[in-house]
Amino acid sequence: MADGDPKPRTTTVAPARFGTGLLRDCWYFAALSSEVKTAGLKRYEMLGEPVLIGRTRKGEVYALRDVCPHRAAPLSAGKLTAEPDGRESVECPYHGWRFGTDGGCTAIPSLVDSQDLDISRIKVRRYPAAESQGMVFVWFSSDPRGEGEPDEPPPVFPGAVGAPKIVERMVFETHMDHAVVGLMDPTHAPYVHEAWWARSAKRQHDKEKHFEPGPAGFVMTRHPRSKANRIYDILGGQPEVEISFRLPGMRWEHIQIGRRQVLALTCLTPVTDSSTIITQILWSDHPAFILTPIIKPFVRAFLKQDGDMVNLQNEGLRYDHSLLWIDDADRQAKWYQALKREWTASRAEGRPFVNPVEAATLRWKS
């Protein structure tokens, strides 16, 4: 290294204990694009922070911290106004302070001409927001000043074409880590989801699936459908399935039936350290989805079964946070923890992310 060259960052990051801490410097699913109306202001809570998500009259999505720095009123209770220069600002409902979609203060109506106050120094935090395939994603930076910018576009999913056929949401009263592990757990289905239309604990079989590393996650490579899940029966043909996971908490099941396809995307969005929204979105060009009113209750019932188990698990977590992981059934959960550690370390050390997942064939019974 030549004299005067900057020294490389060597920050050491202590990994957060499982069930604590939330990833930063990544995109989180916030809403469907159709839910963010033109000139509308809507309040969300994400990662323990109040977030206003809106859309300008020109159609651009933006996100701001939903707290006016003057008297802490929610900006989302105000309105979108036009400035003399054509830009748009959010007007606080309390005293009319206005903030541009970049977070900068544009006006304080109570000021008189003789009062010298540099309002350009007053800001609310701006969260980078972007749309992808009819969904709105918000970037949460690790920069304590909120000045970090995305270094990658929001995720893109195969088969997310057109309007969704089914959208279901549910709040799990648990930390995101527990929600993610429950989502990817391959052996709970015969017990948690036992029903006439799903598998049964009495009909378990040996399973063998191959996994490969994927972008910030891993992929269960394409394989024939599970015969235990009768929901696939409505699709007919010979469905083949590929299941992917990526940080911070997105899992999608891409089903191919000849030239037809189904995409079942599940996004986990932390509200707080102890509350997580699970959003499941289904797209398809398959004619079976003319039966959407019949299919939708099964999707919701499936989510509720997971939610009920999370609430039951919370009873045990009140007394003991230590968890026992085994191979191969819990390998995906181990990968998730390794991915989180590497993501956090790579960001802190200013280096590229190196996926710790290695190709493997896993075996379990379910």
Automatic annotation (TrEMBL):
Which controlled-vocabulary keywords does the entry list?
2Fe-2S, Iron, Iron-sulfur, Metal-binding, Oxidoreductase
Q: Which residues form a coiled coil?
A: none
Extract the Gene3D superfamilies matched here.
Naphthalene 1,2-dioxygenase Alpha Subunit, Chain A, domain 1, Rieske [2Fe-2S] iron-sulphur domain
Question: SUPFAM superfamilies per the record?
Answer: Bet v1-like, ISP domain
Flavoprotein among the record's keywords? no
* Iron-sulfur recorded as keyword: yes
* Pfam families named among the record's database cross-references: Rieske, VanA_C
Rieske domain spans which residues?
27-138
PROSITE patterns according to UniProt:
RIESKE
Q: Which PANTHER family match?
A: 3-KETOSTEROID-9-ALPHA-MONOOXYGENASE, OXYGENASE COMPONENT (PTHR21266:SF60), IRON-SULFUR DOMAIN CONTAINING PROTEIN (PTHR21266)
Name this polypeptide is given: Phenylpropionate dioxygenase-like ring-hydroxylating dioxygenase large terminal subunit
* Source species of the chain: Caulobacter ginsengisoli
